[in-house]
Design brief:
- The protein has 151 residues and is mainly alpha-helical.
- It has one domain.
- Helices cover 76% and strands 0% of the residues.
- The radius of gyration is 18 Å and the shape is elongated.
- The two termini are 22 Å apart.
Length: 151
Amino acid sequence: MTGWLGDAYLWVKAAHVVFMVFWVAGLFMLPRYLVHHQEGLGDPAEGPRWVKREALLRRMILTPAMGAVWLLGLALAAHIGLFDGQTGLGWLHAKLLLVVALSGYHGWAVGYSRKLAAGRPTLAPKTLRLLNEVPALAVALIVVLAVVKPF
């Protein structure tokens, strides 16, 4: 299956990067929404506003962008031979591991937003603020792996 995208490879790669930017932008926003949502739980009018904002962000940006990133990324991986046993793709294995972890973080953030919607915060505000930095660290590592291909 190596090389199966042919001349479409660069278009698929460009689309992958575009949807990655959308997804990561959403992952930068949602945790900050969660902080504000948790801080606003004492105000009965604020909670429903944050629930609506978070749901829109998930429905309009986060979930569709993540799906596109995965679909396009797997197509790119197949193109360069990941599923054919191509050698020299250690960087891609590491990148995929980080993307799986980032997808898990996405799932955690969505789950935590649902806890907040139910009025059940479980994290200290400082911990929640620290967890906001996870996407930035993951994306920095993913970009280095994809561009430098260190192994």
